[in-house]
Amino acid sequence: MPSVTPDSLIVVTGITGYIGSHVGLAALQAGYRVRGTVRSLEWAKQLADSYTKYGADISRLEFVIVNDLLNQSQIDYAVGGAHGIAHIAVPGGLIPESDNRVEEAAESNLVILRAAAREPSVQRVVFTSSSMAVIRTPSFVDRPLTHNDWNNEEAERFLTASDEEKKEWDWYITRYCAMKVLSEKAAWRWVEEQNPQFDIVSILPDDNFGPVLPGSNRATAGWVYNLLHNDGSIMHDISPQWFIDVRDDARLHILAFSIASLGGRRIWAVAEPFGWNQILSILRKEFPHVQVPPDIPGVWGEVDRQQIDNSESTELMGGWIGLEQSLIDSARSFGF
């Protein structure tokens, strides 16, 4: 399929989300026209104002209300005249609060694909998947993970678990993994069966850090916010893994539109591994007046040992924003 060239219209679902807000900005900065789906025009105005501060031409930005990602008619309307779609939003938000959210996430992908198939102008759909579609942390595989790997184990656990297993404290992680695996696979299967006029790309980001734009939510950047408020609870719930700066994640989404050869690919969106004690050390050095939690013992304090083959995305990007700069910019966006 040909690339989606600048001045084309890209629809960004969930544009007021943490990743979506940066994808919208990156698209404008790259010369695209952008239509963002929102649930509230109040947040949309805040986001547009923040885009202006970054020098974006907001005359090329529009918003459309979508309050139900499973409503086919709303999505059909939202993608009218589009050349590309970045599907970032998830029904019910980032973390699924009930098991039925898994099926809804898969259906949401299909709603997007059906809408795209009805719009002859659409050339490419870019899905925001997750590293959790490949592996559950803190699992470990003694080899580099590639874009060909899938987290089938957690998807199978979700589909076959007993009621007792679903009461375990970490069931929400299994649910999230299953949501990402099953929804992404549903999209690939639909494309294989329907052979539409467009192709798809799947982006596989791990934890995102970096600045939060006004009018968007904090998501994983909120972990940094909490650490800067001496709240270290996240370090006991989430193990060390890899990270990407949200601005790099956004740039990679845009490259997925602009490079024709990326059609039909899964692309890792990861820069480098991190450890919680490493993050705490950076925050103490850069913000000595702020009290952060003490280091934590054991492997959860250490840098993640899992290898990931991100060579393709590293070559595409030409380099990454490092962890230290990403954390500094996160903190400054919170007023530190």
TrEMBL record:
Keyword DNA repair tagged: no
Keywords attached to this entry: Oxidoreductase
Keyword Oxidoreductase recorded: yes
InterPro entries (UniProt xref): Epimerase_deHydtase, NAD(P)-bd_dom_sf, NAD(P)_dehydrat-like
Molecular function as annotated in GO: oxidoreductase activity, acting on the CH-OH group of donors, NAD or NADP as acceptor
Domain NAD-dependent epimerase/dehydratase residue range list: 10-258
Family named by the database record: Belongs to the NAD(P)-dependent epimerase/dehydratase family. Dihydroflavonol-4-reductase subfamily.
Protein name: NAD(P)-binding protein
